[in-house]
Design goal:
- The chain is of the alpha+beta class and about 230 residues long.
- It contains eight helices and nine strands.
- Strand 1 and strand 2 form a beta hairpin.
- The radius of gyration is 18 Å and the shape is globular.
- Bound molecules: iron/sulfur cluster (SF4).
- Iron/sulfur cluster binds next to helix 4.
Length: about 230
């Protein structure tokens, strides 16, 4: 198989044909932050947290395939500040009260906020008031925390292949809806996966909260991206 040669911030990297910039970066020990991207799902490049620059052009690294000689800028200060501002926008656009959230310590948005050292967003809070969907048997949906990444829509299916989650409306009005009949038939593992696939605390498994105490969760042990970066050869 032909190896592709490219660089990230001047560092020589290799990729397999068909790999996206995010995938190849990870294989080379370089972390590119993502939020809407989830391994195993078709990338859509909607959140733009993974934006990199190639020859002066901005592109979503989760959807862009690597080609020979690509020179990717990943950590230029203006790119990092743009990512930080996007993360801040997610915080002000929803209601994210981390200390009271069941996903605290497992939340990718919270972990990214720590990585980018966000204290106070530079934008005004919108304080939306979105209805919860608490009716389904195994899952509940806290739409005030939803970042419209559509991971649930793309990645959670019932045994008959039908989507358990749907998005209605478009743009800023995108609203996620659980199919209650399909959700009721999910196994415990499938319901747990639905909660895990959500990068924030919008999808919650009912009846089993805080099984692992805050302080002993994934990002309490290691910052987001550190598992990729520790594999870096320098
Ligand atoms: S509910 Fe979670 S997984 Fe689904 S779109 Fe919202 S944030 Fe993404």
């Amino acid at each position: 198989m032909t190896e592709i040669h490219f660089t990230i911030d001047g560092r020589a990297c290799t990729a397999k044909p068909g790999q996206t910039i995010v995938e190849a970066a990870k294989a080379n020990g370089v972390y590119i932050p993502v939020l809407c991207h989830y391994e195993g799902l078709k990338p859509v490049g909607s959140c733009r947290i993974c934006t990199v620059r190639v020859a002066g052009r901005y592109m979503a690294a989760c959807t862009q395939p690597v080609t020979e000689g690509l020179a990717v800028e990943n950590t230029a200060p203006d790119l990092e500040d743009m990512r930080k501002s996007l993360i801040e926008m997610f915080f002000v656009e929803g209601n994210h009260f981390c200390p009271a959230c069941e996903k605290s310590g497992n939340c990718e948005l919270q972990a990214l906020a720590y990585r980018y050292q966000i204290m106070v967003p530079r934008f005004p809070y919108l304080w939306p008031g979105r209805a919860l969907q608490a009716g389904p048997a195994k899952l509940m949906l806290e739409r005030n925390r939803c970042v419209q990444c559509l991971r649930c829509v793309r990645g959670v299916r019932a045994k008959n292949g039908r989507k358990v989650f749907a998005s209605i409306e478009r743009g800023a009005r995108v609203t996620i809806e659980i199919d209650a009949k399909l959700a009721a038939k999910l196994s415990e593992a499938e319901a747990r996966r639905a909660m895990d696939i959500c990068p924030v605390g919008a999808i919650l498994r009912k009846e089993t909260g805080f099984a692992v105490p805050i302080g002993r969760r994934k990002f309490d042990h290691a910052p987001i991206g550190s598992d990729i970066e520790k594999g870096a050869g320098g």
